[in-house]
Amino acid sequence: MRPQAASAAEVLRQGAMRDITIAIVSYNTRELTLHAAAAARAAARGLDAALLVADNASTDGTPEAVRAAFPDAEVQVYGDNPGYGAALNRAFARAPGAYLCALNADVLLAPESLRILRAYLAGHAECAVAGPSLTGRDGKPQPSCKRFPTVGFAVAELFALHALAPRNRWNRRFYYGGEDPHRPVRVETVSGAAMLIRGDAFRRIGGFDEGFRMYFEETDLCRRLQQAGYGVAFVPGARAVHWHGASTLQTSVRQVEYYLSYIRFIRKHGGPAAARALAAVVAVSTAARMLALPLKYPPLSRRRLAVLRPKLAACRRLLGRLSAATALHAPAEAAP
């Protein structure tokens, strides 16, 4: 019989490295985090794995709930709410592993997913990242891998051209629509919602770039790993359910962070001219949206005004930060 695994806290005291470190990043997602931790622990059954929850200053009792439900897990609370990639960097530095599993709090790993992802990386030394196949809570497939974004693709996304024709050939190519959905395939990047990373490769390139607060940190990580000579793989035999966007951050706040990170990624990997071009298109799109918002949400009542004001404020905040976003080392905006 396999001996019972030591708790994450005991491993940290002993200074030992586990085979797999699982880190779940939470922010005001108490119930989801509890479900994610339960699924992760089930997926780790029989493996040499440590479970950590990296909490970004939740105010809904997430840390206390996790400690009560999973006394063998390590809970770290980051009061400065540093963002997704930064929280993972801290968690993986505190409990380094041969393999590192990064999870959103709204992801439920299937029972065999960790074994499948680990087996793939163990059998493919040239690969540093493996990602599972994601479905929504309704069972519908979600995009689980993609190519690196370009300014052209970003502009089409900004003006909803891909939403109007979601199965156009550019969109299908971007999301690897022509690949066999049942076989592992080398890709440019996998979803950051759930990914298994080779620990030595992660440490070699310095982990996540903490300049990306909420989006594109996994895209940047995969880009830098490939620049260092590693591969990235989508492994559809491993599965996970992604509740997608379940953080309590408001949609308007997420939208600001999304476009700022998009521009930063283009600046970092495509150059300042490409970043300025994208920032200009974002500015035009945002200004047009500001003009349209009062028509969509006429401020004829307190309720509608309460909806309109934060959306307009988010647009103003985005416009105010576009110039700084084209600079590679622009400071990140703290979340509310």
- Mean pLDDT, all residues: 89
Evaluate the radius of gyration: 20 Å
Order of helical and strand elements: HEHEHEHEEHEEHHHEEEHHEHHH
Helix content: 40-55%
User: Quick one: how many beta strands?
Assistant: 11
Sheet of most strands: 9 strands, mixed
Helices and strands: which structural class?
A: alpha/beta
Ends apart, CA distance between termini: 48 Å
How many helical elements? Answer: 13
Low-confidence stretches: 1-6, 246-250
Proportion in β-strands: 15-25%
CATH class of the largest domain: Alpha Beta
CATH topology of the largest domain: Spore Coat Polysaccharide Biosynthesis Protein SpsA, Chain A
Instruction: Please state the overall shape, judged from the principal axes of the Cα atoms.
Output: globular
In brief, what are we looking at here?
With 336 residues, this protein is an alpha/beta fold. Helices cover 46% and strands 19% of the residues. The chain has 2 domains: 8-150 and 172-242, Spore Coat Polysaccharide Biosynthesis Protein SpsA, Chain A; 251-325.
Describe the structure.
The chain has helices spanning 8-14, 30-43, 62-69, 84-94, 113-123, 151-158, 161-164, 169-174, 199-204, 217-227, 251-270, 272-296, 302-325; strands at residues 18-26, 49-55, 74-77, 97-104, 107-109, 127-135, 145-146, 185-186, 189-190, 194-198, 231-242. It is 46% helix and 19% strand. It is globular and about 60 Å long. It has two domains: 8-150 and 172-242, Spore Coat Polysaccharide Biosynthesis Protein SpsA, Chain A (Alpha-Beta Complex), CATH 3.90.550; 251-325. The protein is built from 13 helices and eleven strands. Strands 1, 2, 3, 4, 5, 6, 8, 10 and 11 form a nine-stranded mixed beta sheet that branches. The chain has a two-stranded antiparallel sheet with strand order 7-9. Mean pLDDT is 89; it is low at 1-6 and 246-250. Helix 3 (62-69) links the parallel strand 2 (49-55) and strand 3 (74-77). The chain is α/β, with parallel strands linked by helices.
